[in-house]
Design brief:
Mean pLDDT: 83
Strand content: over 45%
Low-confidence stretches: 1-26
Distance between the termini: 7 Å
Oligomer: single chain
Number of helices: 3
């Protein structure tokens, strides 16, 4: 099974994320050595492989063609949003369900995310196989000022949409986004 490897380069916490998708990798190829303090977590539901900070928690969910992976600093509770962590959502069979291409949706969804709070960063990273729409916003999560860094990817060739979101309370962003930077620097999306 082919998988897409996306490399996201963050020049600084306040800089935009850069990306250079590589050519598809074979499932049998080993994952690169993780950075110190991290291990690779490969989801069972097909979302992909992501860096997990040591001591953090993970949870997976699947419903009607949508797979979700959570990697959080705190224990993950049902029906409770993450306070600090990464959420990866994979929506399969997008065009069959919605009648639009995944790449079109990724662009429009990124625009709606940008309008959902105080826009801090926004851009598009051009890739060989798809574009990555990057949005960072400051908003309120249950009354707590929160910063969320989103990456939206529409893969027309496999009819999937991915949404990666790393978030943290705004007053902890500088510290916690160091973990988020590593998590968003290297990941392998499932196909």
């Amino acid at each position: 099974m082919k998988r897409y490897f996306f490399m996201v380069l963050i020049l600084a916490l306040t800089a935009l994320v850069g990306c250079r998708p590589s050519t598809p990798k074979q499932k049998t190829e080993p994952l690169p050595e993780p950075p110190a303090g991290f291990t690779w977590m490969t989801s069972k539901n097909g979302v992909g492989s992501f860096l997990k900070p040591n001591g953090w928690y993970e949870k997976e969910d699947s419903q009607r063609g949508t797979n979700v992976l959570y990697i959080a600093k705190e224990k993950i509770k049902k029906n409770n949003p993450l306070e600090i962590g990464l959420t990866v959502t994979q929506i399969n069979g997008w065009s069959k369900q919605q009648g639009t291409k995944p790449s079109q949706y990724a662009q429009s969804y990124a625009a709606s995310l940008a309008a959902a709070g105080e826009l801090l960063k926004q851009g598009v990273m051009k890739g060989e196989t798809s574009d990555m729409h990057v949005v960072r916003v400051k908003s309120s999560n249950k009354g707590v000022s929160t910063i969320a860094h989103h990456i939206v990817i529409g893969l027309d060739a496999v009819d999937k949409v991915y949404l990666l979101s790393f978030e943290s309370p705004a007053n902890q962003w500088e510290k916690e986004s160091q973990q988020g930077r590593e998590m968003l620097n290297n990941f392998l999306l499932g196909e």
